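Researcher: Sequence of Trans-sialidase follows. Predict its structure.
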Amino acid sequence: MPRRLFPAAAPLRFLLLVLLICGTSCAEANAKEGGTLSRVDLFTAGVTEMTDPASPSDKQKFASFSAPSLVYVDGVVVAFAEAHYTNATDRKPYVGVAARWKKDDATTWAEGSAVVVDHYDAKVYRLLRPTAFVDNGEVYLLLGGYGETGAPLTAAAAAAGYWRPREASGRISSDDDESEGFEWHSQSTSPIPSDLESPTPFKEFLGGGGAGIRLGDNTFVLPVQALKADGKRVSLVVLARGTSYGWKFSEGTS
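Model: Prediction complete. Tokens:
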């Protein structure tokens, strides 16, 4: 399952195709006028800072970014990435999820916001490898929950559900039926209540990376990684009939 990796210490540079943002006609017009596709730095290590909707008065500056993901919904492009930083209170490394967005007709990207910490469990220090997908205007991110050392929360913690995917989510806000931008839901980073709770050959969900797709029968195909009982890390997909039900792992792995 191919994935493009970005160095954690370098800015994430998203080359946004004009086709994605404004359609074929816009691309043709741009070409006729001698224009070129532009590159924009959305997340810059040591520079980009954002607020968490749970603490809107506090800004967090991030040391590095990795594992980008991109979705397009209701006329808005939304870019996500892991956001790495050192907590100013306990001086420990944390990883949140950052988001920036841009409307079709806008010339600049919104400042953005981030889920800086897991809002529901103090044992989760790092939210890694976001896999983004869209359902009826709602944006979902599957995330792997990791502990203080950066290791997956497995074994004794498994009974608490740490091996299952964690989820951050949001929506495209609107004003008079016109899309405005992306905003996080208040219930972010909670475990997904799915039938992946049933016994599986995996002892830990490790997150995924990239974006999921929706098939013609409305089944979601979500690229993920998991840890097997023997400690081997494998890549596979989750097949989901809905956002919180009808989930199962693919039979094949790589």
